[in-house]
Amino acid sequence: MGRSSGLTAEKWVEIGLKALSSQGHEALKADLLSKAQGVTRGSFYHHFSNVTDFHAAVIDRWKEQATDRVILAVEMPGDPRTALEKLLYLSFGRVERIERRMRIWAENDPLPRAAVEGIDRRRVAYVTALLGDMGYSPVVAATRANIIYDCYVGCALRRAPEPKELDDLVSEIINWCALPQ
Q: Cys staple from 95: which of 11, 42, 158, 160, with CB 3.0 to 4.6 Å?
């Protein structure tokens, strides 16, 4: 058996996320990634049975970083308005290429498509719950959550807002959400 490359499964997933962000899903191939790391494909396949398993691991990490960690970072028990404001600044302020790349990948592949659809539902449900906690009826909360989320996705597909734009955008959304029903 040859000497170990020192690349763990975690490191391969990290490499995959960086490749996805910078080059798109076409770069998530064992031979391309191995060559870029200066190792054989055996190092890759030591950790992943196949490329699909690797793709699933990359997608799972994206879900954790792009949603789970964000929700944990903004949780403000008892203060949904502050949580919403923090969520908007954090989300809109860190729109990354990987969000766009993941959505492009999801266009033609059922594995990332299912993940993106699940993340979309989870994010909208979270914003809906915050708006509900702010006093909006379930229908109004769901409608506004979808509008806010569509704005976020638009920014992700277009480009991240500049700092001044971000402040104006978040302020306007917060003001809109504070209007009486």
A: 160
User: Measuring CA to CA, how many Å separate 4 from each of 8, 42, 45, 135?
Assistant: 10, 9, 12, 57
Contacts with 84 (C-beta within 8 Å, 6 or more apart), sequence order: 127, 130, 131, 134, 174, 177
pLDDT along the chain (181 residues), means of 10: 69 96 94 92 92 97 91 84 89 81 95 96 96 94 96 83 81 80 46
- The domain in which residue 102 lies consists of 9-178
In the chain, the number of structural domains is 1
pTM above 0.85, yes or no: yes
The verdict on residue 2 lying in a domain is no
CA separation, residue 35 to residues 27, 46, 58, 75, 158 (Å)? 11, 15, 18, 42, 32
Residue 4 in domain? no
